[in-house]
Design brief:
Mean pLDDT: 90
Helix content: 55-70%
Number of helices: 3
Largest sheet: none
Low-confidence stretches: none
Structural class: mainly alpha
Number of strands: 0
Strand content: under 5%
Order of helices and strands: HHH
Length: 72
């Protein structure tokens, strides 16, 4: 959600070498939002795009957490 591709390196670094927890997932999702630079346009507002980054990051890390814990 930026004019150019961008990695959320702060979010990546939060995860490195740590066991996933609900708090870590939420912190990483917030870091991913902070790394984004969304625009408002006719397809979506910047606010909606930030919300989507947070939601999708939490969902992805939640799935990783389930796999790490022996689920899915």
């Amino acid at each position: 959600v930026a004019p150019i591709d961008r990695r959320a390196t702060d979010a990546e670094q939060l995860r490195e070498g740590r066991i996933l927890t609900a708090d870590l997932i939420d912190t990483a999702a917030s870091a991913a939002v902070a790394a984004s630079d969304p625009i408002d346009d006719i397809r979506a507002s910047a606010s909606y795009r930030r919300h989507t980054v947070h939601t999708l990051t939490r969902r992805l890390l939640g799935e990783a957490w389930a796999r790490q814990s022996g689920g899915v």
